[in-house]
Amino acid sequence: MPKKESVALGIAGVTGASIAAWRLMFPWIGHDIALGKLGLPLRKKMNDRLEKEMFLIKLFEEDVKKNPKKPFIIFEDRIYTYEFIDTQANKVANIVCQWNLIMTDTVGIMMYNSPEYIWIFLGLQKLGIGVALVNYNLRTSALLHIPATNPLKAFIIGQEVELLNAVDEIKDDLGDLPVYVHGSTQSQLLPGYHSWDDLMHASFPVPVCENVRNGMFLELPCCYLYTSGTTGPSKPVIFTQRRAITGTNFTQMIEFSGNDIIYTTTPLYHTAALAVGLFGVIGEGATMVLRKKFSAHHYWEDIRKHKVTVAQYIGELCRYVLSLPKSPLDGVHNLRVMLGNGLRKDIWAQFQNRFKVPQIMEFYGATEGPIVLFNVNNKVGAAGRLSPVGNMLMPVKAYLIKYDSVTEEPIRNKNGFCIQIKRGETGLMISAVPDDYLKIGFYKADKKVNEKKMLRNVFKKGDYYFNFGDVLHLDQDYFIYFIDRLGDTFRWKGENVATVEVANALTKLDFIHDANIYGVTIPGSEGRAGMAAIFLEDSREFQPFMLQEIYKQCEGSLPNYARPLFLRFPTELDLTSTFKHRKVQFVKEGFDPHKVADPLFYRNEKLKTYSKLDASNVSEFLTKSRL
């Protein structure tokens, strides 16, 4: 906190200044009052649950006792009560009991959103088994990376043929890992696979004894959420039982209650859908309307049909919905608040006004991060708020510090310490690290990987902070605005893309020496689209057939969101002194034919290749790419 404001706050407190006086001295204090009214009860409730060790599964079972017939999940117009989901979860627990697993073991799930996903997750929680929540878009080496970094005792996959095909491609590399397939009997499956349905049909719905969870503790992994982070390929984030309990309380910032109905369309392997959406519903005994996949055309139809009061979003989702033709029913709904992150300022007011959304509550955080910041004030474009008063009330402190945009490292003063930014400036987000995080790490990985997320000797010798790798702007009222993400990832189509993973896929082609992967902005689109600067082997010259080969390689090795939308072919490999790719100039030039002197191409899904992009067709491309 700046010294002047710190002293003034102290004087105001000592003299018993009225609210009016506070508002006069600090015009932004009203935003803090609003935040405090919501944040303090949240903190009290969260601490109470942590003190009593009210684990997620315990909260769910309490919900079942209180309201067994209440709708828990509404999916494809079918109602699944708390009692029914619990019965199915009991079956799951009784199946897994026969596997002789222990609490520190992990079982993987790769399924689309469904009630089955939820009752399998909860059934494993009844035994205290950690659950690896696998992105269903992963293929080949990216999918194989999951058990390689986080050994699984079993892998349960959904009934869709594309999921079975994805696993079948790597089956030989999975060793003796048992794979269970939902939606098929044993007679319908190829050798080497097991029918999950057959096991469920034979299992009894009786509850397992709660004593099997006697050894559960707050730092025990509840689940693993996979993220690209800012330091390379996908890593399993350790989501402990403590964090799960904490997650059940976040919806208190929108005064969520058992009377609410929340609409969730984003994948349950994402933090927002799981830890905020599902855990929040369990925390209050509320109802979730769950959709297998997001559909812009059905978005408001579902909200109206099921009398939804709270809807979750990511920024890209809102743009898709906004692109629909206007309708007289646009503002007809029971929605009181939308909850999410990534809604860009340029469409925020337009979206809110058109669809008559009373409140949009944006929040800021990271899957592995120790803090979450909230914008409870309906401030257009703000990802949250980081004020002196708010920071004093937070159990974990957060700061924005100055950084070098070229080296992407913090700027330090003459004493070697970091420098907090002032209002009106842009900085790198960091936060303190609670003891439990420091003890178990952010990821299930070696110490070196976890250390990459840490900053040492930040404000004093020996201290340590978590580096979010995000650049945010702080305005005059202490609202924060997301600007960019540093490091080896960028975000596209709601997913984090690891540049290393994309480069590794491309360099498997024998004519590619190296690939520099980065994200570029497309006007009217969220996030950054992938672009690859391709460096050919010394003895090779560019040939048109290479474009089709690159297209095929991306199709076979990368999820859709990670496949580069643009290619360029520089003649010289430009590296830093530490042998890292230089990206700054490439990012500035983007895919503008007037700036890019190299051969330039865009992904043409219709022709299944990359086609030439130049001054004659770039305008047409941009028009077609707008949502």
Brief write-up:
By secondary structure, this protein is an alpha/beta fold. It has 21 helices and 28 strands.
What does this structure look like?
The chain has 21 helices and 28 strands. The protein has 627 residues and is α/β, with parallel strands linked by helices. It has four domains: 3-49 and 365-485, Luciferase, Domain 3 (Luciferase, domain 3), CATH 2.30.38; 53-68 and 86-247, 3-Layer(aba) Sandwich (Rossmann fold), CATH 3.40.50; 250-363, 3-Layer(aba) Sandwich (Rossmann fold), CATH 3.40.50.980; 489-625, ANL, C-terminal domain (GMP Synthetase, Chain A, domain 3, 2-Layer Sandwich), CATH 3.30.300. Strands 2-1-11-10-12-13-14-15 form an eight-stranded mixed sheet. The protein has a seven-stranded mixed sheet with strand order 7-6-5-3-4-8-9. Strand 8 and strand 9 (235-240) form a beta hairpin. The model is unreliable at 1-16 (pLDDT under 50).
